Design the sequence.
């Protein structure tokens, strides 16, 4: 099992977000607004997404600096953290383009307390926490799609959910968990 | 003798209701862990406030959490019915609030609320 986990991450560590994808996400507000566009409401939702990304970045930081993660899983955790940083940067840019104020991240200690980092005692504990947070983020992003006034921002939520789904799938496979038997596992 | 027989039947039905309820709570917990956990925890404030004691609690009153003005000024309590409306469309219940997530499935909302009721 351990060899197959290492091989799995050896193959997957080559994945990355394209610069083109980031620039499209960051440039979405310039593609036109919906008729009843309310920037303030959509900024609020984007700030919730930004809070999720801040937490994810810090969760992976806690995992990476715990000393519990072994290569290549450590490399993948750092890679996934970099994806969340890209999400963060794109969300901050979008919020500011819409005239809003981006929510700031809390301290690492705050996240450690909120996520009960002191209970993490093994690599598997960290992977399970990461998988839980990624799954929560997938469902959160899918869940907010109907709330956006501007449909282009709904597309951002969809793209963020897609990245988190990729993370979740990789993490659960590393844990040796089975793929879902049923379709429509996410959202709803 | 007939009395004991009837009592036995009654107890069997009662146990089935108890077991069905326990199953709903567990299903609700599992849904909470997938749908709500991105922003909430049972006993820690995160992106959203903690949920321990939520049923019966005054809206917008968890210590240490920064609420929107909409919830701070709500002046009501969380009931199962209010939670159901909230999870369906938070903005319709308290306009100007911060939670954008919506849960459209009636049964999933019911199960999550059953679980929330147990958080004391």
Sequence:
């Amino acid at each position: 099992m351990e060899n197959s986990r290492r091989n799995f991450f050896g193959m997957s560590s080559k994945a990355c977000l394209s610069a083109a994808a980031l620039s499209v996400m960051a440039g979405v507000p310039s593609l036109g607004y919906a008729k009843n566009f309310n920037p303030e409401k959509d900024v609020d939702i984007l700030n919730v997404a930004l809070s999720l990304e801040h937490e994810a970045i810090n969760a992976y930081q806690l995992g990476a600096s715990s000393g519990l993660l072994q290569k290549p899983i450590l490399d993948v955790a750092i890679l996934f953290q970099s994806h969340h940083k890209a999400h963060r940067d794109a969300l901050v840019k979008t919020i500011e383009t819409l005239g809003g104020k981006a929510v700031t991240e809390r301290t690492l200690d705050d996240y450690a307390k909120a996520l009960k980092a002191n209970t993490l005692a093994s690599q598997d504990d960290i992977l399970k926490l990461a998988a839980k947070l990624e799954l929560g983020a997938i469902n959160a992003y899918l869940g907010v799609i109907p709330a956006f006034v501007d449909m282009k921002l709904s597309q951002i939520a969809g793209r963020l959910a897609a990245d988190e789904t990729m993370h979740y799938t990789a993490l659960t496979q590393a844990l040796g968990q089975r793929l879902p038997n049923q379709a429509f596992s996410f959202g709803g | 003798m007939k009395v004991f027989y009837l009592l036995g039947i009654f107890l069997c039905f009662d146990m089935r209701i108890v077991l069905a309820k326990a199953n709903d709570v567990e299903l609700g917990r599992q849904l909470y862990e997938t749908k709500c956990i991105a922003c909430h925890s049972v006993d820690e404030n995160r992106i959203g406030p903690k949920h321990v004691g939520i049923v019966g609690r005054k809206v917008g009153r968890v210590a240490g959490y920064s609420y929107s003005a909409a919830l701070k000024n709500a002046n009501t309590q969380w009931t199962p019915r209010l939670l159901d409306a909230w999870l369906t469309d938070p903005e319709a219940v308290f306009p100007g609030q911060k939670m954008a997530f919506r849960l459209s499935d009636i049964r999933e909302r019911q199960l999550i609320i059953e679980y929330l009721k147990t958080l004391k």
